[in-house]
Design a protein that fits this description.
mainly beta; 0% helix; globular; MitoNEET_CISD; three-stranded antiparallel beta sheet
Length: 68
C-alpha cells in the first residue's frame, strides 16, 4: 500500500497524493485520480474538489506548531 500525503497549500487547497478513497457524507465514492485537490475555501463550483476559485480571495498559511 502506498503512503498517502496530504499537503495544506498556502492560500489554497488540500493536495492529496496516494492511494485513497474519497467518500461523501452518505458513503458514496467519488472518482479521483492518483493526485487531486480538495477545496478549503468554500468558493469552488466543483466541491469537494478545488477549481482555483480561491486565487486572490482566500488567505490561510497554516504551519505546524514547534514545541519548545
Amino acid at each position: 500500500m502506498s503512503k498517502v500525503q496530504i499537503r495544506v497549500n498556502d492560500n489554497g487547497s488540500l493536495r492529496i497524493t496516494g492511494d485513497v478513497e474519497l467518500l461523501d457524507g452518505e458513503g458514496n465514492v467519488y472518482t479521483t485520480k492518483p493526485s487531486f485537490s480538495l477545496c478549503r475555501c468554500g468558493l469552488s463550483n466543483n466541491k469537494p474538489f478545488c477549481d482555483g476559485s480561491h486565487k486572490g480571495k482566500f488567505d490561510s498559511q497554516v504551519r505546524v506548531s514547534k514545541e519548545d
